[in-house]
Amino acid sequence: MAETVPGPSEFESVDNSREYGYLGVDPTVLIAFSPLKADIYIRLSADKFVKVLRAGDAFGADEVQKYRNDKKLKVLYLSEADINVLITKIDEGLDEALKAPGGPAPAQVASLHTATHSLIHDVGDQIGITKEIQQVTKKQIQATIASIKHDWRVSTFLKELSKEGGYLAWHSLSLSYLACL
C-alpha cells in the first residue's frame, strides 16, 4: 500500500470556482471518503470543469499522487450540491468513533481530524462556517477529548496523525493533546 502524500495545499486559497457551482478541496481530504460519495471534477479553464471520478470510485494515496504530483493539480472540485455529502460522511464517522467501546481509536481520530480540519479549511473559506460545519467541528473536539481520556500516550496520536499528512492539521491536533497533559 502506498503512503499518504504529504503537503496539501493548506495555505493556498481556492479560486472563484463557487460562482460556477463547484467547491475546491485538497485531494488528500478525499482519501477519508473512499469509496467516493460524490463525483469529482478537475478545472480545465475559468468556467470549464470535467468529471474525472465518479461516486463509488476508490480514492487513495495513489490517486493523490496522480493528481497532485503527476498532473500538478493542487485542488480537485466537487459540485457545491455534493459538499454536504462529505460533511455527512465525516459526521457519521465521528458518531461511530464516539460510540466505540473503549473510546475512539487513535488512528481513527487522527484520520477524521485530518479530514475534518482540511474540509473546514477548504470549504469554510468558500461558503463560510455553516451549522453543519460547526456540528462536525464540535464532534471532532468531542472525539479528540474522548480519545485522550482513553489513551494518554501522545506519541500514539502524533504517529497516527503524521501518517495522514498535513502540517496544519497535525499542528492543531498536537497542541490539543499537549494542552491536556
Q: What's the arrangement of secondary structure elements?
A:
Layout: E1 22-25, E2 40-45, E3 48-53, H1 61-70, E4 76-79, H2 83-99, H3 106-127, H4 131-150, H5 154-164, H6 167-179
Antiparallel strand pairs: 1-4, 2-3
Give the overall shape, derived from the CA principal axes: globular
Q: Could you tell me how far the N terminus lies from the C terminus, measured between alpha carbons in angstroms?
A: 34 Å
> Can you give the mean pLDDT?
75
Structural classification: mainly alpha
Largest sheet: 2 strands, antiparallel
User: Which consecutive residue ranges, at least 5 long each, have pLDDT under 50?
Assistant: 1-14
Computed over alpha carbons, the radius of gyration is: 16 Å
The total count of helices amounts to 6
Strand order of the largest sheet: 1-4
| Secondary structure: helix percent | 40-55%
**Total E-strand runs:** 4
Q: What's the helix-strand series? A: EEEHEHHHHH
General description of the model:
A two-stranded antiparallel sheet has the order 1-4. Mean pLDDT is 75; it is low at 1-14. Helix 2 packs parallel to helix 4 (131-150). The protein contains six helices and four strands; from the N terminus they run E-E-E-H-E-H-H-H-H-H. The protein is mainly α.
Briefly, what is this?
The protein is mainly alpha-helical and 181 residues long. Helix content is 51%, strand content 11%. A hairpin with a 2-residue loop joins strand 2 and strand 3.
